[in-house]
Fold this protein.
Amino acid sequence: MRQKIDKIPARLDLTQSVTGLILGLFIMGHLIFEASILVSNEMMYKVTVMFEGYYFLGQTHPAIVSLLAGFISIVFIAHAGIAMRKFPANYKQFKTMQKHISIFNHDDTSLWMVQAFTGFIMFFIGSVHLYMMIAQPEHIGPFASSNRVVHEFMGPLYVLLLLSVVSHAFIGLYRLALKWGFMEGKDYRASRKRFKILMKAFIAIYLILGSLSLAKYTYIGMTHDFSTCAKYKSKTINLEQH
Amino acid sequence: MKVIYTDVLIIGGGLAGLRVATGVKERGHDAVVLTLVPPKRSHSAAAQGGMQASLANSKMGEGDNEDVHFSDTIKGSDWGADQVVARMFTHCAPKAIRELAHWGVPWTRVKRGDREAVINAKKVTITEKDEAHGLITARDFGGTKKWRTCYTSDGTGHSMLYAMDNKAHEDKVEIHERLEALSLIHEDGRCYGAIARNLMSGELVAYVSKATTVATGGYGRIYSVSTNAIICQGMGQALALESGVATLGNMEAIQFHPTAIVPVGILTTEGCRGDGGLLLDKDGYRFMPDYEPDKKELASRDVVSRRMTEHIRKGKGVKSRYGDHLWLDITILGREHIEKNLREVKEICENFLGIDPAVDWIPVRPTQHYSMGGIRTKYTGESQTLKGLYSCGEAACWDLHGFNRLGGNSVSETVVSGMLVAEYISDFLESSDSDMSIHSKKVEFFLNKEQKKLDNLLNKENGEDAYVLRRRMEEIMMEKVGIFRNGKDLKEAVDELEELLKRSANIEVFRSKSRAANPALVNAYRTQKMLKIALTCALGAYLREESRGAHSREDFPSRDDENWLKRTITSWPDENQTLPHVSYEAVDISSMEMPPGFRGYGKDLTRHHPITKVMQDKVDKIRQTMEAEGKNRFEIQDALMPYKDKLPKKYQGTNARFGENV
Amino acid sequence: MNDKKPRILKISILRFDPHDPDDFPHMETFEIEESDGMTLFIALNEIREHHDNSLKFDFVCRAGICGSCSMLVNGKPTLACRTLTAKLGENISLAPLPLFELIGDLSIYTGKWMRYLNEHLETWIHDKEEELKFDNLEEKMEPELADEIYELDRCVECGCCVAGCGTIQMKPSFVGAVGLNKIARYHLDPRDKRTDEEYYELIGNEDGVFGCMTLLGCEDVCPKDLPLQSKIAYLRRMMIKASMN
Ligand SMILES: Cc1cc2nc3c(=O)[nH]c(=O)nc-3n(C[C@H](O)[C@H](O)[C@H](O)COP(=O)(O)OP(=O)(O)OC[C@H]3O[C@@H](n4cnc5c(N)ncnc54)[C@H](O)[C@@H]3O)c2cc1C
Ligand code: HEM
Ligand code: HEM
Ligand code: SF4
Ligand code: F3S
Ligand code: FES
């Protein structure tokens, strides 16, 4: 009898994609929820308490956010860990790839380099951000968040993180679709073109959305008077903790 | 001295060479294949149109069998072919194609039901039988009674060669790439291998073998415009010629293909016309029906090429800075058909002409295409004069094609001759005949001789430029040994070529003095050899005072069976002579199953041999009486010209054929 | 065609003769006059014939059929013989494909690489049945399937996809699109009796389909327009399926 096949490579590849997909979808939601601040402080607040379980349990439990952040962290670490296999293993490989890209000048190859690079960045900033969300889930809200952005100096990091995650995620999702032949249709070349347009559109939309939100957080952070309280007082929802 | 020993040395990794290799390997013998390029890049890959085999699966192939294929081939050859060989070939072609199917060639298949086709410029509906669905289909090719040319879209040679090479991988055939055979090692009329040069390192290697096979393809590149790959330079024929012992046959028999694009000479397949494409002149007028009311565009290649040339001479050609040309119109086939079945053609038009053949006409003119001549062998593929030397494929003249080859018969020949020759070689190896007795001194002698030649070329000063000689040779061949030939031009060609040959002894490799990879050095020694090949061709053509098949003499327009039903045999017994030695070998009418007749093109100008009539009557009588006795076609054939006993046992079986015995 | 003065092409070639101990890789520029319908095949031969007869390059069919003449034309891997100079600017840069063993100048040893690949992936029909009876009718095959197989069989082993793949540049043990395409071709072929597990053994790893990072350089440079992207995706799904059993 022939020996059993080694299933690990298949599993790793699949896991990389599944985690990437989860993270991608997550970030799509995340940034939209984050953008609720653009509507109003109240809206952002509602979203926050929603995640804390208010609408389901009648109470807020920031631990839920911790849990969610924990889960995402695991996915994040799993994804990063697996995807790191693909990084250039040493300087020589990196150099080879760079040279290849500079001579060849090919879109999708360059995009991969962007992905690897942004992934590398997120490795650090993403971890910091996630850690904060696990450790201080209660410090989320129109004012608390703005405070973090401005007075805890997270703003610059968020800019970087935003740029990274948006490009990484949508390039990733584009690659994901082609990699597995998702919605190839009859003419896979045409559908690749469509996916690419879609990818670019999403990157643009999400970058704009994210920047506007960040700007709003910054604005609030700069104008709001945090000396009294960093907590937001809702007009409709009255909770002790906040 | 580097020496490599093997049972069979095969020079050439095209279809023919690889088929020999796998064949002898399966019989348990060692084989080494030498090739200039990776086998998959051999010229066989360029065959687009198809492979003839009388499968009779498709509607338009119904009624086809070995007999029809045989008769087409003999007619096509203008009775120059060896009829026993043609019988062996037509009998084995179906086996070869089925074998290839088994090895992975994705032959295009019959699809049940109605399908549109263009025949004679009209759309017709062909209905394929249910039972034939999924069997190998065929298309129409020039000079055939039935649709017999099997194909894979328009990459037939490519997929055949790939399947063959992959099979060679499976059989662990040893393949030495970029090794060029320069000369044969031989002693006392027995061949013992070859001296080869590694084109990357420049190293000379002696390959010593019991049997040596030359399957190096054709020699089209002695012409300035040819459809052939640029490595088709006749090095195999030169190898044999320079041995002084082996002989070449019918070197003057050169085929011109009607439809190569202008100016570069890249072929658009005969499938274009087979599928319904038309030839048009400068007025957009379809002229072929005027010349050949019966077969029109699908007359035999040599005929179409000549008609086109005639028409151009009448001033009907389209003027261009590269000379006059005609149009090939495949727009009527429709885009879908072109994109599926003639895609290679489409790519060629787009990449080399910048046109879309679904909309535009393609500029074409007749161009050198195939070499019927080659190393003269017996039906076993063994040289008639140098024992242990074998040859097959386009390189050889075992004489299947006579003076004109039918389209699709060539790739078919490569695999059929390959599989047969592999058996004959194996038999040889298994007999005591193959015992070797050659002293290593002798091997060394041949190696040193080649080394000295190379040194000479590199050390020469104030010599000739090989490129100049070669370009001149190409021009001479094109202008004076072309489609239409005449005594005056041919004489001039022979004289000037002889002059060039003399000058070529003085070739100097300018500037580039490397002993390793060195294209200038390669060009230098190849030019010397090519000149000899060109001379065998030109001289043979000059001497042959008749028109037969592709050899068309304006001063001798008729086929002359009385004086010229014979093969031209050339050899080069003395290194120092400047012209080949020419002799003739009779083609025996009295042993023919199909005595010479009229090929059916134009007016019958044939000067028949007196014995022809006698033989024809005899054949007719035997046929009549046996038919009356209810004998089947196999029995009748066997009575007329037995050949089966010549085939290896394993290939003697009767072919199953849909509609006949299935 | 017109009386416009022909362009003077400046063709820069990356030259190096590994057999010459004193040589080192350097660019050399040749100026030639462009002619109508000129391809790089014509241009390079002109350079060889009139400027430098030691220039090494590989052409065989000169018709875009055999796959011998792949090189980097302005950085992009392609078949030189069917590249019309008219489609390029006046300055043309030519370099040998990377990764393959260099024979000299533009000439590379693709044959060796491809041979190894074919042996490694066993790119032939695996049929354990006894000998073929070639006297009998051939096995039937659906016409569409035959066409589909041919579609993948059209690869000419030119190596463009290898030169255009970043993954393989970094990790030369990767089989590349050419290798994956071949497996897809045999996987499709009912005559090949290998099981999915057997295919998995060949390409179910980081040197195989799971090594591909979907860079799609292969897809974009393949001169035969093979559906590489789609077929690699197909194989990936197949191999995942095989791993689920
Ligand atoms: C454009 C074109 C289209 C064609 N289409 C068809 C068609 O549709 N149907 C058909 O039946 N026929 C066709 N033919 C003809 C057919 O392709 C060839 O006759 C046939 O493939 C020759 O095969 P071969 O194996 O004899 O030689 P080739 O395939 O030419 O192989 C020759 C081999 O010899 C090697 N070699 C040469 N010299 C040396 C040396 N000195 N040392 C070592 N190795 C050497 C080469 O490297 C090569 O591997 C076509 C030909 C052309 C030009
Ligand atoms: C469950 C886990 C997560 C939670 C609860 C969370 C929550 C938040 C919150 C509340 C903010 C607003 C700013 C702040 O309060 O500091 C924010 C901003 C941001 N988060 Fe997260 N986040 C999570 C995971 C991630 C991950 C995994 C990424 C990407 C790697 C990410 C990227 C960002 C970015 C880029 C911003 C800036 C937003 C903007 O530009 O509008 N977050 N996140
Ligand atoms: C430390 C953080 C991260 C690192 C190091 C990282 C790295 C990578 C790398 C190198 C790839 C390419 C893999 C390949 O080519 O096969 C990749 C793919 C991908 N990443 Fe990330 N990534 C990180 C975080 C994220 C995040 C936060 C998201 C989503 C928001 C994400 C989404 C994706 C997606 C969708 C893919 C495509 C999956 C695939 O090709 O299988 N990644 N990642
Ligand atoms: S897949 Fe395309 S690019 Fe790659 S070797 Fe084959 S033909 Fe060339
Ligand atoms: S370029 Fe390389 S990474 Fe995959 S998609 Fe093509 S093989
Ligand atoms: S020379 Fe054959 S593809 Fe270019």
Observations:
- The CA atoms of residues 131 and 207 of chain C lie 34 Å apart.
